[in-house]
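pasting for the record
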Amino acid sequence: MTVQDLETFYDYNYWANKKILPVVSQLTTAEFTQTVAGGYRSIRNTMVHLLSTEWGWLSRCGGHQRGASLKAEDYPTVEPLIKDWHNVESYMREFLSQFEDEDLNQRVEYSGKEDKKRSMPLGELLHHSIIHGAHHRGQIAVLLRELGYAPGSFDILFYYAEKHGVPA
């Protein structure tokens, strides 16, 4: 894994966010917080979990500090969530710009389940954060469809096609 790989994957991550956030912005406050389905039960809860986790990994890896996990109730509407998402994107892009490829092998210690100490390479932890984001964005897309909204497609194929000016 290279820094350029991570920068590309995070660029895709934020491109996909920019595809789904305008759809989420169409939700009423009731729809945003409504219990629909899934492990986090609402679009808001799933999105806050996703943002908190991405920011949490950035923080654990030495980037902009998040503090305590984000709480869904602190986001009664989508607007403050979008603002924080833009901030985290800036923090991540700045963080990645500081590294050389060999830096991605630095081991980062973190607490796992039951506070068990674990250690993994920086690059792998950041890569995990991207995959985690794709997983939960897919869940958010399903929840949006359950509420009658069409989030469109944000597969990486469409990102690459758009990036290279190729019809998807």
